[in-house]
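I would like you to help me understand the sequence and structure tokens below and explain how sequence relates to structure.
___
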Amino acid sequence: MTPTLVRNQLGADASAPADAGTRARDWAEIQERMLAPLYEAVYDRMEVGAATRMLSLGCGSGLAMLVAAARGAHVTGVDSDRDRLALARARLLPDAGWDDAPAHSPHPARRRARLLEDGGPAPIGADGSPYNLITVFEPIGCAAGDSEGLVPALRSAVPLAVRGATVVLTGWGPPERCATAAVLQVAARLADTARPPRTEPGRWRPTLRDDLEDVAARAGLKPDGSGRVSCPFGYADVGSAVRGLLSTGLFDAAVRATDRSQVEKEVAEALHPYQREDGTVWMPNVFRYLVCVT
């Protein structure tokens, strides 16, 4: 699966201020699909299918869950972002919840999906069937403190899984293999303009080689393989690219230090080297995944 070039939704101005709901839609409609090759590569390696009972930590707006459910997996997603979770419900549970979906539903994938707000993921079904796959598809290793909440979440989730269950962590690849890293440096530079300079969580920082391994060690997981996946970011125009990138949250510290208009302007300028003659934007990237066992 390759990313789709996505235009600005409904002709919206890319420079307009974005509230939480707008940003969640930008993520779901523009940015999330850029990670689809990562989802597919992990599912191929894990042989995700009807026997899979997956817990997705930080499930976002649900695309990774939808892909797994389409393969026959039973999926549960947990997220603290209510706006993204609402979009996931619209994708996976538009007509009925987990327990109420009729057996004759024309959307069998939706009968295998469950969504929970942050905290206390429950066993997958009424019979208490435990999970055998836990995934974290929100890439870590590109923002200060981005794994701090993940370690306790993993420790809470592991007891709900079978012994020897698989846990997959994902993160950004080496900065020299990610064209987007050069654009993300704008976030760090603008965040540094705050007086006094802030080192708050969420501020962009270069990816480190052992980010995923460090999380696994702190969560008590045993690494059992890894892989790299090409995930190019492709946009129909610079405006769409700016909206998609800002929806990741990696520019939040920069917005707080300056203002959204300034961040949008400088991100757009940083995108110029990646803009092609037809106006589209194309940035090759590599992402990592680490396979662990409980």
